[in-house]
Amino acid sequence: MFEPVWFYPASLLNYSILRWLNYSILWAIFSSYTRIPPHLYDVKPLEDTLSKFVDFQKINKLNKKGIIASMSVPKKESKGASPRLIMTCTDIQRSESVTFDSDNMKIDAGHVIACTGFPFYGLPWTQKDGLFLWDGSLLSNTPLREVIDASPKNHKRVYIVNLFPKTQKELPTNMFDIWHRARDIIHTDKTDHNIHMSKIISRHLTLLRQMHDLLNNAHIDDTMKDTFMKIEEDYHKLATDRGAIIEEITKIERAEDVRYIFEDADFSLGTIKKLIKQGEEGAEQVLNEKNRDINQMSNS
Fold first, then answer.
1. Residue 158 has what pLDDT?
2. Is the terminal CB of the chain with fewer CB neighbours within 10 Å at N or C?
3. Per-residue b/e over 202-219, b at no fewer than 16 CB within 10 Å?
4. Does residue 70 contact residue 84 with C-beta atoms inside 8 Å?
5. Quick one: CA dihedral 156, 157, 163, 169, positive or negative?
6. Where are the domains of the chain?
7. Amino acid 47: pLDDT
């Protein structure tokens, strides 16, 4: 009689031990991860600083729900008027863009803070006006569409400052470079389609105005006249209430001499001063080139 012998290869045993260890490590990480708070930083000091140094009363001086409507500002009162401030953030629960507009509401430091919560760096969401809000960049880092929606009547001259380079010749060489480039692509300016659609809408509105003028000056019978009067109201809503077009757009893009993954979370004094100087130089260069092109066109 032979007694059966069971073989258990060492490699299989090692695999089983390693798999158990991996599961144990993952479980330990997961268990501790669930106990980490939802954010790592307190933005209250930043809110206090904004309240101390920003004149929100001046920003809110000419909002529509306040003293006077922005479309009918007398020259005497408009002389010291503050520019209109429009900011966007993201509704966490509905995945929708939320717009804060100094023309329609009183802006305070809390509204600004609500637009800064960035989950990937541990910055908290803000509860404001009954909503839980994160940074607007999660949906759109260049909120041109939201600006046009908030101000659909007035034609626009747009200046876009792109902090995340749109083009990069070199391919990433390691995982940190990959994360950096992916982050740039996620947050870079994506308004080309909005600008293209604005041009199409502008052409459509031009055609509508020409057709309207032809019909308005043509001899039509009473039946057609009644029909024309009915569509007149809809025409004015399209042509006037939502007739804003982008007349001119200027893009200023930050150049990168050194790349690192946490550059957009570096708020050290030296980095901030460097970025301010870089932004001033970049803007001045673009505007000088623009003026030179205009002068060449006018002289030709």
1. 87
2. N
3. beebeeeeeebeebeeee
4. yes
5. positive
6. 37-139, 152-265
7. 94
State both tokens at 138: 């999660």
CB of 124 closer than 8 Å to CB of 117: yes
How many angstroms separate the CA atoms of 202 and 209, rounded?
11
According to the 3-state scheme, what is the secondary structure of the chain?
A: CCCCCCCCCHHHHHHHHHHHHHHHHHHHHHHHHCCCCCCCCCCHHHHHHHHHHCCHHHHCCCCCCCCCCHHHCCHHHHCCCCCCCEEEEEECCCCEEEEEECCCCCCCHHHHHHCCCCHHHCCCCEEECCEEEEEHHHCCCCCHHHHHHHCCCCCEEEEEEECCCCCCCCCCCCHHHHHHHHHHHHHCCCCHHHHHHHHHHHHHHHHHHHHHHHHHHCCCCHHHHHHHHHHHHHHHHHHHHCCCCEEEEEEEECCCCCCCCCHHHCCCHHHHHHHHHHHHHHHHHHHHHHHHHHHHHHHC
Residue type, 3: E
- Residue pair 104/64 in contact (Cβ under 8 Å)? The answer is yes
Give me 289's structure tokens.
């080139």
Looking at residue 271, what is its pLDDT? 87
Q: What is the mean pLDDT of each run of 10 residues along the chain (300 residues)?
A: 41 48 58 71 92 91 55 44 84 95 92 92 91 93 84 82 87 90 88 78 75 74 74 72 76 82 82 89 91 81
| Residue reference for tokens 């307190």 | 42
